[in-house]
């Protein structure tokens, strides 16, 4: 294991903060960042030493990251211990995280919304306002799920191109809105 520099440590700390903002345990996010920034696979003991956290906490975090599919065990010749490394492709890592988030958040919400609407439809006195609101929310989550499933099927290179097209399209639209506002100001009576 090489020495972790201040830049590497700042990245690890930031990734933990970012993970917390996303609803991911801070320590689990820091374990991921440590593995991501490490030039070679690390053992649980090494991660524990780098982050100054209990070995049991590292073990729990490693199991969670493995369940998400973003890290894997590798074996080093001459060492019987398990070593861990992240996926090498950050786009695949991103997809794995999105897949897991959809599974943990979107899919259960869809199920609850569908069940709630079914329960509401079976009531003698139906509350139209609540029904309309639930249908709106269900529609939003169904569309989100469909979009995710479609994007999930795209090759990474296509996804990258779409992201760049979207960024450029956004700039063009911002320019058109700006020009429209200027024209509107010029045409306004004083």
Please describe the topology of this protein.
Elements: H1 6-21, H2 26-37, E1 42-43, H3 44-51, H4 55-68, E2 71-76, E3 79-86, H5 90-121, H6 128-152, H7 156-187
Antiparallel strand pairs: 1-3, 2-3
Helix pairs in contact: 1-2, 2-4, 3-4, 5-6
Write down the overall mean pLDDT: 89
Estimate percent helicity.
over 70%
Number of helices: 7
Shape: extended
Give start-end ranges of low-pLDDT stretches: none
How far apart the termini lie comes to 71 Å
Order of helices and strands: HHEHHEEHHH
Rg value: 24 Å
Major sheet attributes: 3 strands, antiparallel
Which structural class matches the secondary elements? mainly alpha
Measured by DSSP, the beta-strand proportion falls in 5-15%
Overall structural domain count: 2
Number of strands: 3
Strand order of the largest sheet: 1-3-2
Describe the structure.
- The chain is mainly alpha-helical and 190 residues long.
- The protein has two domains: 6-88, Arc Repressor Mutant, subunit A (Orthogonal Bundle); 91-183, no CATH class.
- It contains seven helices and three strands.
- The protein has helices at 6-21, 26-37, 44-51, 55-68, 90-121, 128-152, 156-187, and strands at 42-43, 71-76, 79-86.
- Strand 2 (71-76) and strand 3 (79-86) form a beta hairpin.
- Helix 1 (6-21) runs antiparallel to helix 2 and helix 5 (90-121) packs antiparallel against helix 6.
- The longest helix has 32 residues, at 90-121.
- 13% of the residues are buried.
- The mean pLDDT is 89.
